[in-house]
Design brief:
With 168 residues, this protein is α+β, with helices and mostly antiparallel strands. It is built from six helices and twelve strands. The protein has a two-stranded antiparallel sheet with strand order 1-2. It is globular.
Length: 168
């Protein structure tokens, strides 16, 4: 029953099934949260809680399109558009983003705008991809991790003292 399910720790009632199932993103640690299957969870440092990522609840492209300013359909799943943070701290914590203090806006980091290999490779978090002509600047895989804990989960990555995650 819905009540019995609600009484169980880590469970929630799915009315459309109808059945009791595992509550998504029910983890008490950052490592457990970020290791969640399907990567639909995010760790909120301020509250020390594991939460469902924005947009992750939309399981079809049509549902995803109901929030066009926040979500986009990518690789068969609904994901939050990059750098949609309203708060400066959240923006600065996101490795893809940078805060424009003059206008109070979060925007995508400039690496996506690097147009030549020399500028691109000066950024420790980037590499020049020559597979698609004329070439483009891409973020290194480990650069997406923005905390030492998350970086340490990936065996291919290492956390540097200057606060970035790079390939071993």
């Amino acid at each position: 029953t819905p009540q019995t399910c609600a009484d169980e720790v880590g469970c929630e009632w799915n009315a459309s099934a109808p059945a009791c199932g595992e509550k998504p993103c029910y983890h008490e640690t950052e490592a457990g949260c970020l290791d969640e299957k399907e990567f639909v969870c995010s760790w909120k440092e301020a509250t020390q809680n594991c939460e469902l990522k924005p947009c992750a609840m939309h399981t079809t492209e049509n549902l995803c399109k109901t929030q066009p300013t926040e979500c986009e359909w990518e690789n068969q799943k609904c994901v939050q558009k990059a750098c949609m943070h309203q708060q400066e701290d959240a923006c600065k914590e996101d490795v893809l983003c940078e805060w424009e203090s003059g206008v109070g806006n979060c925007k995508v980091r400039p690496w996506s705008n690097y147009t030549n290999d020399m500028v691109c490779v000066e950024d420790k978090q980037c590499y020049w991809d020559t597979l698609a002509a004329p070439g483009s600047c891409q973020m290194k895989p480990c650069a997406r991790y923005n905390t030492e804990v998350v970086c340490g989960i990936d065996i291919h990555c290492i956390w540097l003292t200057d606060g970035i995650c790079v390939e071993r």
